[in-house]
Design goal:
The protein has 175 residues and is an all-alpha fold. Among the domains are: 39 residues, no CATH class; 44 residues, no CATH class. Helices cover 59% and strands 0% of the residues. The chain starts with a helix and ends with a helix.
């Protein structure tokens, strides 16, 4: 804060810079308590549940990146708020290892156990890369179509001769 005061004195002639420094000083002064890290605020946090460890925010940001962001961002996808929320919940459940238990509790009375296992195996085992793979060849190939040579071009004697040669072959193939 002292450094900002010194800068405001130094830039007393420059109205624009002084105004920006004054705005920054006011912001920092008004939000001083919120800018202190929570560990330095003498806040007593409740004991974490068994198996949970309090860490800094960088750990949480990394988890969000690895678990949710990389799966939902990119690939020209867009999400509604409810769709993003639902997929985020599913990804978080999968990362925490609770997906099977949650699906079991949701579908306990809805479908048979055999059908549930089949659906869960299909959904959980497919990764993003597997979903986007092309299907294997089926042995059915589409007919390729091409225009006649020199279609829509000025006709010379050479081009006319080539068209006449290919026209006869096309007629033979179609018979």
């Amino acid at each position: 804060m002292e450094y900002l005061k010194e800068l405001m004195i130094e830039y007393v002639e420059d109205e624009k810079v002084r105004e920006r420094l004054h705005k920054l000083y006011n912001y920092l002064a008004n939000n001083y308590n919120g800018l202190i890290p929570y560990r330095l605020r003498n806040i007593s946090l409740p004991k974490p549940p068994e198996g949970v460890v309090y860490r800094n925010m960088g750990t949480m940001e990394s988890s969000v990146c690895d678990v949710i962001k990389l799966r939902m961002k990119g690939r020209k996808m867009s999400w509604t708020k409810s769709g993003a929320n639902s997929l985020g919940k599913l990804l978080a459940l999968r990362a925490s290892g609770n997906l099977y238990e949650t699906l079991d509790s949701l579908f306990d009375d809805t479908i048979t156990d055999d059908k549930l296992e089949e659906v869960v195996e299909q959904v959980v085992q497919l990764s993003a890369a597997e979903v986007n793979k092309k299907p294997k060849d089926s042995g059915i190939y589409p007919i390729k179509k091409a225009p006649m040579p020199f279609e829509g071009q000025p006709m010379t004697f050479g081009r006319k001769a080539i068209r006449d040669l290919t026209k006869n072959r096309v007629e033979l193939i179609l018979r």
